[in-house]
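ugh finaly. both done.
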Amino acid sequence: MIISSNLAAQSAANDLSNTSAALAKSLAKLSSGSRIVNAYDDAAGVAISLRFDAKIERANAARDNVANAMSFTNTQDGYLKRVAKTLNRMSELAMLSLDGTKSDGDRTLYQNEFTQLSNYITNVGGKEFNSVSLFSASTVESVIDSEGTSFNMTGVNLTSTTYTTVTGSSIATTGAATTALSSIRTAITQLAGDRATIGAFQSRLNMANDQLAATIENFTAASSVIKDVDVARESTEFSRQNILNQSTTAMLAQANQLPQSVLRLLPQ
């Protein structure tokens, strides 16, 4: 027996250090809810989860873009519904003006309303959405997925010749009313096509939104498998390390007592 070196105590101290580190690591996982506390826990997992998290963030941003694009098209269509009603009323006024039993004075009254409706269409043509023109020939571009795919929405132009011919027409005479009616019918046909185009954009945006929702859900689940701690499993590991830590502490105390027994062999 020797007293200059207590190898048993050194071994127990090393074991205590290891169990304390494992206990602290397990506690950190349980308290953070993450399986990866430090990069060395799973270097590959860290790299993969970072890429997944970045993709999820991009998908969330793209979803915001899609929501804004949907709001843009919904606003467009809301205005065009009213323009459609306006054109219908203007065509009705043109027909009334063609009535041979009406006097020019009567047509003047129809013309007053016709002018106000024309002004309304002109006013709608200048409307904006967050400083972006709603009704111009310019294409509105948006990004609709996490990879940066562009989606171009061609402009619905209320300042095109088809519409300005109507807003610049008159029904003050039967001849003018005949010409105006023809222009209005052409504009109604154009408007129907414009609304159909907007409807197609809305359908595409709805599909993009659904796809982004699925992407976010799937990659969140995949990232969770890599990063999130299994509480049941880690709780078991924590209990095991806690018991080992207590046992090692007790054995270290016993090992520190061993040299004292040597004193009994020394002469009194």
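ok and the 2nd:
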Amino acid sequence: MSMADSEFEAAQWWQTGVIYQVYPRSFQDTNGDGVGDLKGITARLDYLKGLGVDAVWISPIFPSPMADFGYDVSDYTGVDPLFGTMKDFDVLLAAAHAKGLRVILDFVPNHTSDQHPWFVESRSSRTNAKRDWYLWHDAARAGDNWQPAPTRLPNNWMSQFGGPAWTWDEGTQQFYLHSFLKEQPDLNWRNPEVRAAMYAAMRFWLDKGVDGFRMDVLWLLIKDIYFQSNPPNPEYYDAQHDVKRVLPVFNADQPETLEIVAEMRALMAAYRPTIGDKGVGSSRVLIGEIYLPLDRLVRYYGAGPQLSGADLPFNFALIQTRWAADAIAEVITKYEGLLPAGAWPNYVLGNHDQPRLATRIGKQQARAAALLLLTLRGTPTMYYGDELGMVDAVIAPDQVRDPAEKNEPGKGRGRDPERSPMVWVSAPNAGFTMPDAVPWLPLEAGWETENAAEQGGRKESMLMLYRKLLALRRQHDTLHAGGIAEVVAEGSVLRFRRVGLEDGESTDFQVVLNLGSEVATVSCAKGTVVLTTLLDGAGSSVEGTVTVEAGEGLLIALE
């Protein structure tokens, strides 16, 4: 029986398409400062079009002091000079649309920079009109053991980067809340003026013609109105990661957050499509970054027959799950079973906050992962360079740039390794920047032979695998919008069927993935191999059983 929702037809571009994340600092530098820019993204649009993706999600480009590389915004309606000008953005948007590519911006609603004019005003005095735009709190009562106010934290909430989520402001003698760096104070989303200002910023970009937003840390927007301390985490044991000391019960995933998501969705639904999309409902996509268990994640789709929440609450389960057939089969089955009626699924295998896919599971398994991501039901999101099998770069101590690692040395690996520059050609600096420039982060090892140009000339490369998979996904409605059935783990092998109708005829595919380290033989219905992840066996017939190499995947058209 298919797990697809038969009452919900894929009508929007974001349902049938593939999203590609660009980390702009690391994609293409055109002015020789070692940092990628908007002109660089424009220059590489033909590569993205040739790859076969449908939308470009660009990590933050807003003006910022860059304490957290753009996730500390000082102006929501501008472009940071590091990346170029507003004209450069307008040119990028127009060029992308001309090629049939959508543009999604990374919006940061939870917090601003401490240099944003709003916060500068807010901290200027307790009576300032913008004081309530952020979350301020008195020091806790002294109690029997008197301590100075700056040490008496309001509660035990933790920053996502480790350490307390409160910083003392000497000028106004109160603490302010920051879920990340102290340079990133949290906005007070209970304040209607804050909501109005943020929605105005969204409209600014929508009026320009952007095709949607990826909303950063969407599940953190609302905090408990009473600022209650979180309960201790019974599973906490690792002193190196003190952010896990308590469970985030009162400073995350509050019920009122869903009201905000519904307001965002309603705002975007009023905008017409930018290029040639005739689907019903909102064609500007609302994506939510939400690191929550699946049963809580799916609530962010919203309620009601049309669903009122995010179009795509990011599903990170494949990143967080063991790379094993039984574990992944369980995730797929559970997720499909939890989806509300009418909800469109999505899957993610990599992003700028996670070790690279090929580093986590190895390059051979990364080929199987490509087949998995691009044949599951729903919308996949790719991370730049994964189509080349890029691995984490080696970052020497004096090359560390990630503030999460700088502020808490030794507390984690940092996020620099997965943010290394894109490798384009076998030339100095891999074509990412000028030959005599210094890239902002070092290149991955092996770029001289494993880059986009070299792989584009090898018929069995990782890049060619992605191109073929993306072409097949576009060619067959079943692969992007059909149902999914018979999700089964047989030892190290994961298999499932994609079922659908194409031109009025039943068109089913079998996906077989060997996620183990040994050759495996499993049962398989009669069919013809359309693609193998080794790109070596298309056209062969199978019936009854099929043998798959370690790390190999097969896409089989069933008879």
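summary for the 2nd one i guess: The longest strand covers residues 520-532.
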